[in-house]
Amino acid sequence: MQIYLPIAEMPVSVLLILGMGAAVGFISGLFGIGGGFLMTPLLIFLGIPPAVAVATQSAQIVASSTTSVLNALRRNALDLKLGGVLVAGGFVGSALGVWFFAAARRAGQLDLVIVVSYVTLFMVVGSLMLKESVREFWTKRRGGVVRVKRQAGEHAPYLFWPMRMRFYRSKLYASVIPILGFALFVGFVGALLGIGGGFIMVPALLYIFRVPTSIVVGTSQFQIVCTTLVSLVLHAVANQAVDIVLAMLLIAGGVFGAQFGARAGRNLRAELFRFLLALLLLAVGIRFSLELVLTPNEIFSITTQEMRT
Amino acid sequence: MRLAGSLLLLVLSFGSASAETLVTSLSSHRVLINSNYTGTSIALFGAIERDAQTISRGTGYDAVVTVRGPPQYLVVREKERFGPLWLNREQQKFPNAPAYLSVLSSQPISEITSDQLRQRQKIGLRAIINSPDFTNDRKGADEPFREALLRLKKQEGLYVEDDRAVAFLTPTIFKANIPLAPTAPPGNYDVEVTLLADTVILARTLTHFELVKTGFEQQVGEAAHDWSWLYGFSTASLALLFGWIANVIFRRD
């Protein structure tokens, strides 16, 4: 069954889009990430104009993340205070990211900046997580003592910087400065690459700030909802690239997927959770670097520029 | 120089063509896009009228139908090896390329026209793509980019050449089916019909049709454009609403 997308100006298969929404929604709910880095390439692969793909999938991220946030709220697995700090830093970062985006485009190097950032980010974050989780597996298998988390004096020095704040839900008492700085970085990269940034947020909260896994997903989703809402409206106003029909289809598939993903995530052991997320990130990183390294089938590509009317 | 050339040709063709007149008609001048639109085809009918003075022709008539979609600003980029990486290096701009282009004829273009005529009158896909005003000339460096544009657009079904698409029902009445790919964008389409006999142009007509969104699709397009803030906020609230509904539906514990 085909339906015509009024903004993308092309027909798509309804079942295919619903399925894609469900699959990405599942992963999104499972790992507490937005899933934009998976959905955007998929939509572009279907032939949807990149601007429409980036803008529209943010609507799906809003919907599936809202479900996750409400779930987390109910289970009391969300640190609103930490989330608020992350959102504040994220907005500043987004603004800087949009500015840098325009600067890179003026310099004519935007494509390269984007692909290289994708590869670096995914490979670095993915391999760090993989290393960590493999080590955890080994320690367990050998019957060794699994490192006890949060021993006194174990905290990294940057958590003792001035302006310390207490985050009860996250069992965190730390300086706001590194948290804000980190949120700023995530916002910057998110705006530059058109992603929510959940995949950086989740491991960072886990490893850098040692927030409990159960809290991480809810809090990260909260940050994603807030920043993505802003970027969705901005995309609609600045580029008129949000396709409401495509958005509704993706959402319909996505909310179901996210629900089952969140349920599956609750039954997943923490190490396995980290291991799987690491594998997913590495796979995406490798896919993008192959695109950069392998001899392409077609060395030419066409892009449509906006007509200035 | 080129203008003079085409003027001369025009005079020549009228001179030799005594009195054939071409009458064409499209099955529709307004093609509507609704929610289950998946491409369409438009029928074109043509009749060749002869009067008493028209000389009889040994060979039959041939017709070429050229359809041009709305113009787009296209950039074709070429990847090159740079160390271990493949990067976009060179690019060629096509500021006025039609989003859709099809050339339909009753016989292969090369058999019914001369090389000179094809180039001068831009008959056939290749002649249009290779014409000097299609993109800036870079002394041969532009050639691979023109080729790439043609190849990629053909793969998408947006540039079409079909030498069997025009069928003569009687020696003086013909019919053509203009195929419109689902991805052909809304806008104004120009349909140019050229009547030839013995590699000479006898007559030309130019007509148009419009591909437009209707009903819901049109309203969404207008809302996104004219009421962008409202549109953005309503999409955002719909997304929030759906997220909340899903949460309520699936609440079990």
Structure in words:
- The complex is a heterodimer of chains A (309) and B (253).
- Chain A is mainly alpha-helical and 309 residues long.
- Chain A has helices at 14-31, 36-45, 50-74, 80-106, 110-141, 176-193, 198-207, 213-238, 244-266, 270-293, and strands at 2-5, 10-13, 164-167, 172-175, 300-305.
- Chain A has one domain (2-293).
- Chain A has 10 helices and 5 strands.
- Chain A starts with a strand and ends with a strand.
- The model of chain A has no long low-confidence stretch (mean pLDDT 80).
- Chain B is of the alpha+beta class and 253 residues long.
- Chain B has 2 domains: 2-212, Sandwich (Immunoglobulin-like); 214-253.
- Helices cover 31% and strands 40% of the residues of chain B.
- Chain B contains 7 helices and 12 strands.
- Chain B has helices spanning 2-16, 109-112, 115-121, 125-129, 143-155, 215-226, 228-249, and strands at 21-26, 30-33, 40-49, 62-68, 71-82, 85-98, 101-105, 159-162, 166-170, 173-180, 187-197, 200-213.
- In chain B, helix 6 crosses helix 7 (228-249).
- The interface between A and B is large, with 57 and 59 residues.
The helix count of chain B comes to 7
Largest interface here, residues on each chain? A-B, 57 and 59 residues
* Widest sheet: strand ordering of chain A: 1-2
Number of strands of chain A: 5
Largest sheet properties of chain B:
6 strands, mixed
Reading the helices and strands of chain A in chain order gives EEHHHHHEEHHHHHE
Strand content of chain B: 35-45%
Domain module count of chain B: 2
CATH domain class name of the largest domain in chain B? Mainly Beta
* Count of individual domains of chain A: 1
Which runs of chain A of at least 5 residues are low in confidence (pLDDT < 50)? Answer: none
Q: Tell me the number of helical segments of chain A per DSSP (H or I, 4 or more residues long).
A: 10
Briefly note the structural class of the backbone of chain A. mainly alpha
